[in-house]
Amino acid sequence: MKYIKRDSIKNYFPLPNKVFCLGLTYGEFAVYSYLMYRENRKTFKCYPSYKTIRNAIGMSKNTVRKYVKSLEDKQLISTQPTTIINKDGHKQNGSLLYTIHPIEETVNYYYEQQMIKLEEKIQLKRIQNKLENYDQKRPKKAV
Question: Which stretches of the chain score pLDDT less than 50?
Fold first, then answer.
């Protein structure tokens, strides 16, 4: 069997290894991957429409919108609305301008959020323990 030699750069796009540490859903991963594919490597920006993303990855427009919002919440991307001028000279809404954030910043944010959740769980457990101890020390009323 003869193998075809692949160009290691041409027709490929980089996807950071650390993206697998962020617990992304398959939908978030698909949208993020598509944005990385479309990203300008010098500006870290791209502007595909929801419809373009939908057609590329096979999701509904509303589902794409949901995952874009989720990626923003996780600080993988940020978005800015754009406007275009149509043939009549009227302004109308354009596609979102996406900025892909450096993965190191996103990973740090992810770990900070995990620590906050852990601290909240620890605090909740402490409160539960205090309530249990209080109930055990409280005298029981005779019925």
Answer: none
